[in-house]
């Protein structure tokens, strides 16, 4: 048995999530996976809610450790890259969007402030920057929720026969472009960055 610590418990819980999905994750199953008695998990997490919050934070590590913007970055290209990074990270885990939904990014607050500061320094009005970041985040979570729930043949559930299957990548990019174009319009900038 591997020496148990908080990080091991979280890593095994994420492994369990990938195997069985969020609805089937339980402290009983996790304890069995770790080869321990269920009450020993309470040494690290008093409640399942605390465990899920820690899992959500750990699952976001690839996005949370991505490079922050620099003053020389084009804010529009950065906005697209940042939102795409968030989506990729949510898609890395089975039920990643469900795990993340409703979580509070307590460990990420300084990074969020720096990202907001970058947008404002780039000429985006502060309130618009806040609302665009929130809209992009919620749009991304919703998009990934739909994508991860989409289990029908050809990738689309319950579509009429005369409707083409949903291309999740294209749908995400189209929605993200609309958010960016709206933000650019509010900031008085025309067009999306070259190469996008």
TrEMBL record:
Keyword set includes Kinase: no
DNA-binding region: 26-45
Ranges where the HTH tetR-type domain occurs: 3-63
InterPro entries recorded: DNA-bd_HTH_TetR-type_CS, HTH-type_TetR-like_transc_reg, HTH_TetR, Repressor_TetR_C
Pfam families found in the cross-reference section: TetR_C_1, TetR_N
Keywords: DNA-binding, Transcription, Transcription regulation
PANTHER family xref list: HTH-TYPE TRANSCRIPTIONAL REGULATOR RUTR (PTHR30055), TRANSCRIPTIONAL REGULATORY PROTEIN (PTHR30055:SF151)
Protein's UniProt name: TetR/AcrR family transcriptional regulator C-terminal domain-containing protein
Organism listed in the record: Streptomyces niphimycinicus
Lineage: Bacteria, Bacillati, Actinomycetota, Actinomycetes, Kitasatosporales
